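Exercise: predict the fold of this chain.
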Amino acid sequence: MHARTTARALTAAVTVALTLAGGQAHAAPAGAADQSLAARVVTYDAGASAEFKAAVDRGAAIWNESVDGVELRPVAAGQRANIRILADNGWPRALTTSLGNGTVYIGRQAVDQGYNTIRISSHELGHILGLPDRKPGPCTSLMSGSSAGVACTNPYPNAAEKAEVEGNFGAAAAGPARTAHRVLTVD
């Protein structure tokens, strides 16, 4: 979202500068800049996330606030989601099938031990967005997961994590489709 706003402002500034300098400015077709900078939409279904639905929605919102290349949205009724989110009694984990696709389990075992549900949600969604675990790690690293300790409640990706997701989705939008793979990440 930040890049799209910046691109619109830059386009407007160049147009004004060319006009003032006596150059000829041509407007791009409406929406052209938005199309080239459009985020890839990845849908999620939190219908089976039970008591963790609010944490899942907040985790998705955190990613939407943090990066421009991808936007996480709740799936529309009757459509198939890219990400299924389930509550279970095990440890939180993500099973990715390809970039932006897979299943997230918000495990009650970690919640019962005191880990923060929003951090868990953001962390597991990070795996679906292509990020690996980075253990051990400090609380400032979202992908440090449980190694940051129970007291860590930071649900936000750091600058390097944001840049990696931007690169994943920038490359995915510009390059050939990635091949599907299955990766199970247990935190």
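Check your answer against the key: The helical segments are 2-20, 32-36, 53-66, 108-112, 117-128, 159-174.
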